[in-house]
Amino acid sequence: MNGFNPNPSSCHRTKYQETWVALNWKMKLPTPKTHPSFPLWRLGYSPEQVYDLFFPAEFRFLCNPERPAVCGRFGLPSDRLWRFEFVVSSDEDGAEMATPAVIEKVVHPYLKHPGSRYGFVIASNASQNGSRS
């Protein structure tokens, strides 16, 4: 027989018991009006380009040993749907981890990019190196 043929008697011994928080968000394009101080506007980025940078089309596994997570777009591209899932540790309460305050602490760091990625100099080095404005 060709192809994958799992042995049913061994599959039941493989167990995975983790609690995850799964978020499905409908995203709106950022614009200079909604985010007036966002620095990429000064570099000529369009709302679509910014969206693509922060919410890439491909599915991503975030291999953070302290908090594994996955994220990616789903559905029709025009719907701008994005999913983010993260593991709840055994010493954490799943309901508490699903609160807006905790979600913000977990998810927001993944939505930040270093300014140096776009040629910006961080404030502490700005006086020595000159800053882009």
What topology does this entry show?
Blueprint: H1 8-11, E1 19-26, H2 47-54, E2 60-62, E3 69-74, E4 81-88, H3 94-97, H4 100-107, H5 123-129
Antiparallel strand pairs: 1-4, 2-3, 3-4
Question: What keyword list fits this structure?
Answer:
disordered C terminus; elongated; 133 residues; four-stranded antiparallel sheet; alpha+beta; 5 helices; 4 strands
Written description of the protein model:
By secondary structure, the chain is α+β, with helices and mostly antiparallel strands. The chain has one domain (17-129). Helix content is 23%, strand content 19%. A 4-stranded antiparallel β-sheet has the order 1-4-3-2, with no helix packed on it. β2 (60-62) and β3 form a beta hairpin. It is elongated, with a radius of gyration of 20 Å. The chain starts with 7 loop residues before the first helix and ends with a helix. The relative contact order is 0.15. The model is unreliable at 125-133 (pLDDT under 50).
